[in-house]
């Protein structure tokens, strides 16, 4: 297994939601100016995204093509994304992460499970504690949030962001970018198939 290359499968939120995210990042994220100068295909940290499969490793890089093909076979329609509450996750590498909790509907759960099944033959990863029946859909919004700003940022997002609703119409297969903690490069995008 080539552990130097890790992957994830995500979906970006709508343009309207991401405009609000950029405004919040300008207010609370001191790395925003650095991130906006990253190459265009480094997409995640300046935009809200919903993780459908968190970090995983392929047996080797040649499996990328097979994963792309398997993911292309997934059938899904528009999925309503509804967020009405906030939470803070803590990560050793990304600090405090302010997230919007998303309702775990049967449709979002089904897409999550289809993705896990599609990649299973190509990865030896153990299912993490946040997958399958423990899947916790959320939109990651603010990263490395200083402890002293958490309450202010929560209030700001409650007043300017919630409730949140949009339609998930695509997802992306992404590879981590060495040297840019938490950043990912787009490999393939998949649009809904009615």
Care to describe what's here?
It is built from 5 helices and 8 strands, in the order E-H-H-E-H-E-E-H-E-H-E-E-E. A hairpin with a 7-residue loop joins strand 7 and strand 8. The protein is globular. The protein has 194 residues and is an alpha+beta fold. It has a domain of 132 residues: Cyclic Phosphodiesterase, Chain: A (Alpha-Beta Complex). Helices cover 27% and strands 32% of the residues. It has an 8-stranded antiparallel sheet.
Q: What is this entry, summarized?
A:
This protein is an alpha+beta fold and 194 residues long. It contains 5 helices and 8 strands, in the order E-H-H-E-H-E-E-H-E-H-E-E-E. The chain has helices at 15-28, 32-35, 63-72, 106-119, 150-160, and strands at residues 6-12, 49-57, 79-91, 95-102, 138-142, 164-168, 170-176, 184-191.
Question: Which descriptors apply to this entry?
Answer:
194 residues, alpha+beta, Cyclic Phosphodiesterase, Chain: A, 5 helices, 32% strand
Layout: helices, strands, pairs:
Layout: E1 6-12, H1 15-28, H2 32-35, E2 49-57, H3 63-72, E3 79-91, E4 95-102, H4 106-119, E5 138-142, H5 150-160, E6 164-168, E7 170-176, E8 184-191
Antiparallel strand pairs: 1-2, 1-7, 2-5, 3-4, 3-6, 4-5, 7-8
């Amino acid at each position: 297994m080539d552990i130097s290359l890790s992957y994830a499968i995500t979906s970006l939120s709508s343009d309207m939601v991401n405009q609000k995210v950029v405004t919040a990042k300008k207010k609370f994220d001191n790395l925003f100016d650095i991130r906006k100068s990253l190459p265009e295909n480094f997409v995640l940290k300046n935009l809200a995204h919903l993780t459908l499969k968190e970090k995983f490793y392929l047996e080797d890089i040649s499996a990328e093509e097979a994963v792309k093909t398997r993911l292309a076979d997934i059938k899904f329609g528009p999925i309503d994304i509804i967020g009405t509450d906030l939470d803070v996750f803590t990560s050793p590498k990304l600090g405090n992460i302010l997230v919007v909790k998303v309702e775990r509907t049967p449709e979002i759960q089904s897409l999550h499970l289809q993705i896990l099944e599609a990649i299973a033959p190509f990865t030896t990863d153990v299912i993490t504690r946040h997958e399958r029946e423990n899947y916790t859909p959320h939109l990651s919004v603010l990263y490395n949030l200083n402890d002293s700003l958490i309450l202010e940022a929560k209030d700001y997002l409650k007043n300017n962001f919630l409730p949140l609703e949009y339609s998930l119409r695509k997802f992306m297969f992404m590879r981590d970018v060495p040297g840019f903690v938490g950043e990912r490069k787009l490999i393939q995008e998949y649009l809904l198939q009615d």
